[in-house]
Design brief:
Elements (H helix, E strand, L loop, with lengths): L4 E5 L4 H13 L7 E5 L2 H7 L9 H17 L15 H9 L2 H16 L8 H10 L4 H7 L3 H16 L7 E4 L2 E4 L4 H9 L1
Parallel strand pairs: 1-2
Antiparallel strand pairs: 1-3, 3-4
Helix pairs in contact: 2-8, 4-8
Length: 194
């Protein structure tokens, strides 16, 4: 059986962004088999009755400082988005509607828009710009993200993550072991290589 790292993410999560950027550097030769698992972090928190750090002033202040510290240490271009937190629903659904060959570019552009370029990704005109940069047909994309099947798929993925004991993003699962947080990426890779 082929080993894989399941990477649970939401574009709204700064720690998912930082983990992704670290993973790109570590996996530049594509030696690690990664499956990206989109979830709605807000929905996951609701299922787990978790109050996210964004709604606690002390945690929020620390989170901003923490993300900047991690970004600086790992030489990652990062800018705290002044519109945090935003609704990432359309982008998360969008990840599901794309062909496999388009997902990587979409992933890069969405994450960079929000956590590098300080873009309000909840605004339709900015979503259109993202689609244009990725050369994605906007009419088709905007229609598909409203399809009930796609809505249900994202909801089901979030519910399945919760049932698998995932409670935050990023979370990595390797060999049925859970590693939560960007600072556990190296542990997940150690497990993958064991």
């Amino acid at each position: 059986m082929t080993k894989v790292i399941d990477f649970y993410f939401d574009f709204i999560s700064p720690y998912s962004y930082l983990a992704y950027k670290k993973l790109i550097k570590i996996n530049k030769n594509n030696n690690i088999n990664i499956t990206y698992k989109p979830i709605l972090l807000g929905g996951l928190h609701k299922l787990g009755e978790i109050t996210p750090p964004a709604f606690n002033k002390l945690k929020m202040k620390n989170m901003k400082n923490d993300c900047e510290l991690i970004a600086n240490k790992n030489d990652i271009n990062f800018m705290w988005n002044v519109k945090f937190p935003l609704n990432s629903l359309y982008l998360m659904r969008g990840y599901l509607v794309l062909d496999t060959n388009m997902k990587s570019k979409f992933f890069d552009v969405c994450f960079d828009a929000y956590w590098k370029n300080n873009v309000d990704i909840s605004q339709k005109e900015n979503l259109i710009r993202i689609l244009e940069e990725c050369e994605i047909n906007k009419e088709s994309f905007l229609k598909l993200i409203e399809d009930q099947k796609i809505k249900d798929e994202l909801k089901d993925l979030t519910n399945l993550a919760f049932k698998s004991d995932v409670f935050g993003a990023p979370t990595f699962i390797v060999n049925k072991k859970i590693f939560w947080g960007q600072d556990r990426l190296e542990y997940a890779i150690d497990e993958y290589n064991s």
